[in-house]
Specification:
Blueprint: H1 4-10, E1 21-23, E2 34-35, E3 46-55, H2 57-67, H3 71-85, E4 97-106, E5 121-124, E6 133-142, E7 147-156, E8 162-164, H4 171-178, H5 182-190, E9 196-200, H6 204-217, E10 222-226, H7 230-239, E11 244-246, H8 253-263, E12 269-274, H9 282-287, E13 289-297, H10 304-313, E14 319-322, H11 330-340, H12 342-352
Parallel strand pairs: 9-10, 9-12, 10-11, 12-13, 13-14
Antiparallel strand pairs: 1-2, 3-4, 3-7, 4-5, 5-8, 6-7
Helix pairs in contact: 5-6, 5-11
């Protein structure tokens, strides 16, 4: 293993991380099969001492399909993928997640540009699927929360985005919400007073989106939530996060469309965001959105051929957006939701920060 000084003396790394790609050469890190995960930083990289991996719900469910629900088996599957690829990336969807840790070192070429210093807590805002990751040890796996506690190192490229973790938020909560911070930020930037907002799926991303929707469209607008799980529907009700809560299976497109039609008296949604963690929910979202409306597909379960051909097949004219995990300012938008909504913050605290036996 190179020391940091030896690596820095070799060369300045490529800003997009091309120097870390082992196979196939010439690919960007996200599309590559294998990365060099040597835990030392080039002069324009950041080295992070990793504590928690927050894996996407889609990737975690796929791991459970392969190896079952046993935490030890899931930990070994994470380790297998990382040892094989030099990064964590779901072999089926290509998705990853994000991580949280403390800055260990910052290359001298980027030090002056950084908002953080060694010792500061950071959450990465780029996917694990393009982040060189070296795992020394799996400490704990929490399948309910899609989180893996590790001892390890990660490398952030010069182009890599990150957010300092505020002192007023626990690490477990920060890593959970930063993994989906792009979703509520889309709502914050696209929703307007008077809009009819549809949110499909009420996991952590969905709850954050619902808060932002209620904040942006009131008092003249309307917010509709579609969620299959009855307990999560009760959470939405108790937190006051929607005007209408549809306890429906979003894979049943016609049933959802008819329910939204009834809620809106035929007007349908003007802006919809799909954050469901299961496939085949695309058409429910499309059919429930009015002509000329906007649909954001944020979930990694989305099949974009189904979106394109499905929209064409029903003769809809929609603005279709692919929900990137990053949009400018999404970290502060999401952190502020937790500050603005004490009840939602308490729910997340109880879910993500409760002590495990």
């Amino acid at each position: 293993m190179f020391s940091c000084e030896e690596v820095n003396a070799l060369a300045l790394g490529h800003k997009y991380g091309l120097h870390r790609v082992l196979e196939p050469k010439g690919f960007l890190p996200q599309a590559a099969l294998r990365l060099d995960n040597t835990p030392s930083c080039y002069d324009n990289e950041m080295l992070i001492d990793v504590t928690v991996l927050n894996i996407t719900s889609t990737a975690f469910r796929n791991m459970e399909k392969r190896v079952g629900h046993d935490p030890q088996a899931l930990g070994q599957e994470v380790l297998r993928i990382v040892n094989e690829r030099g990064k964590f990336q779901d072999p089926e969807t290509g998705s990853g997640g994000m991580l949280i840790g403390r800055v260990q070192e910052i290359g001298s070429a980027i030090l002056d540009k950084c908002r953080v210093r060694p010792g500061d807590r950071v959450a990465t805002l780029v996917s694990l699927s393009l982040t060189p990751l070296f795992i020394e040890e799996i400490l704990k796996v929490n399948p309910e929360k899609d989180q893996v506690y590790i001892k390890g190192k990660a490398v952030l490229f010069e182009s890599g985005l990150y957010a300092p973790v505020p002192d007023d938020l626990p690490e477990e909560l920060a890593v959970a919400v930063m993994d989906v911070a792009g979703a509520p930020a889309y709502v914050a930037k696209k929703a307007c007073a008077g809009d009819v907002i549809l949110v499909v799926g009420a996991g952590k991303a969905g709850l954050l989106c619902l808060h932002e929707a209620m904040k942006r469209v009131k008092p003249t607008g309307m917010v509709i939530a579609v969620e299959y799980d009855q307990k999560r529907c009760q959470v939405i009700k108790e937190l006051g996060l929607a005007d209408y809560i549809l306890n429906l299976d979003a894979r049943n497109a016609v049933e959802v469309m008819q329910a939204v039609e009834e809620c809106t008296k035929g007007k349908m949604a003007s802006f919809s965001i799909n954050v469901a963690s299961v496939p085949e929910t695309e058409m429910a979202t499309i059919l429930s959105t009015r002509d000329g409306g906007t649909v954001v597909f944020y979930s990694m379960s989305t099949l974009f051929t189904r979106v394109a051909l499905g929209t064409e097949g029903v003769g809809k004219e929609l603005i279709l957006l692919v929900g990137s995990g990053y949009t400018a300012g999404h970290d502060e938008i999401t952190y502020n939701i937790l500050r603005e909504n004490p009840a939602l913050r308490e729910f997340f605290m109880n879910y993500y920060c409760a002590k495990q036996e």
